[in-house]
Amino acid sequence: MASLSLPLSTVLIFIICTLTLTAHSVPFIVLHGIGDKCSSKAVATFTERLSNWSGSQGYCVEIGDGGWDSWTMPLLEQTAIACEKVKNMSELSEGYNIVGLSQGTMIGRGVVEWCDGAPPVKNFISLAGIHAGIASIPFCGSEWFCALVDLLIELEVYSNYVQEHLAPSGYVKIPTDISAYLKGCKFLPKLNNEINATRNSTYKERFASLQNLVLIMFEQDTVLVPKETSWFGYYPDGAFDPILPAQETLLYTEDWIGLKILDEAGKVKFINVSGGHLEISTSDMKTYIVPYLEDETSRQVVITETSPFNWLSSIWHFFLELIGFSKDQPLLRMVD
After folding, report:
1. Which is the most buried residue in 43, 244, 302, 328, by most CB within 10 A?
2. In this predicted model, what pLDDT tens digit does every residue of 169-206 receive, in sequence order?
3. What b/e sequence results for 263-290 when a residue is b if at least 16 CB atoms lie within 10 Å of its CB, and e otherwise?
4. What is the C-alpha separation between 66 and 36, in angstroms, rounded?
């Protein structure tokens, strides 16, 4: 029987590349926005492209049925489910990155701050995050469900019933009704460590332990009111004007969650991109997201790997670029 003989140098390179990829490639999870689900074409494509470009394995984490539960399940419950999922994913056991989309950023931050026994989160990439709250429920449309949403809001956004049946009510912060917000809102005051009597230093320690916090705001975002909430900017208590930058809010100056610690260490990236809510181009994805999902080792292995599958992948991507598929195209939209 003939034996296959390979040069020693080839064998060593293969072993080193394989071990390095296994040891240093950090996986990531995607947490989708409200009304969406992991199986939607936009979210699936978004996750796949980030994985292909970064050389890191990506997973979309689904909560319940995705769309319906993202509207009706309280955010504390959604976060608890996400927490158990990441703890049970062996692929994440050595640490992972989070990419959050709009409402998904709230669930992701809850996992970072509250999830006991979970693997460490290294980088947190937030697209259109609702970090300081919003002053109104995101525009829904004219369908029957949206009419029901409007009715629930009219009843009282901070009532127990609305808080338990309408997920976005968990991050509505009416600046002229702060006392009702602190008393009745079940999610955001806890997430942002806003209530002095129940302020938890562990939440701050965990959030401040991030290696990088990437905050992407969309310049033409009309869904988030104000859009500056994506950078932790918000209205002052008692008024709808002016919009305070993050550094002038009490959350920052008193450092309730460790944002100031991260910022002064140069770990917060305030990024502004053109586009409406969750409307991001492929070039912006490559520039502002991919670098935090990959490392030098991953890039070197992807470049030097010579398996038939990677050769086919390279040819395929070259073909797509040749016929024009590399042009910037929005991948995620909030559909009216």
Report:
1. 43
2. 999 999 999 999 999 999 999 999 999 999 999 999 99
3. beeebbbbbebebbbbbbbbebbeebbb
4. 6
277 in active site: yes
Rounded Cα–Cα distance for residues 64 and 72 (Å): 11
Indicate whether 162 belongs to any domain.
Answer: no
Contact 215, 129 (CB under 8 A): yes
326 belongs to a structural domain? no
pLDDT of residue 295: 60
C-alpha 196 chain-centroid distance: 27
Q: Which residue range(s) make up the domain with 113?
A: 28-133+200-295
Sheet holding 96-101, edge to edge: 58-60, 28-31, 96-101, 121-127, 212-218, 268-273
Residue 138: φ, ψ to 5°: -55, 140
Phi-psi group of 65: left, alpha or beta (phi > 0 → left; psi -120 to 50 → alpha; rest → beta): alpha
Residue among 36, 56, 70, 277 flagged as catalytic:
277
- Positions of the chain with pLDDT lower than 70, given as ranges: 1-24, 137-155, 295-336
CA–CA distances in Å: residue 110 to residues 1, 76, 193: 60, 8, 11
Residue owning tokens 């049970």: 88
pTM of the shown model? 0.80
Q: Write down the pLDDT at residue 326.
A: 38
Burial 122-152 (b: 16+ CB within 10 A, else e): bbbbbbbbbbbbbbebbebeeeeeeeebeeb
Q: Catalytic residue, from 25, 54, 102, 230: name it.
A: 102
Is 284 within a domain? yes
Residue 78 maps to a domain: yes
Share of the chain above pLDDT 70, in %: 75
Tell me the pLDDT of the chain averaged across its residues: 83
Contact criterion met (CB below 8 Å) for 58 and 74? no
Domain count, the chain: 1
Alpha-carbon gap, residue 206 to 204, rounded angstroms: 6
27-56, pLDDT tens digit by residue? 999 999 999 999 999 999 999 999 999 999
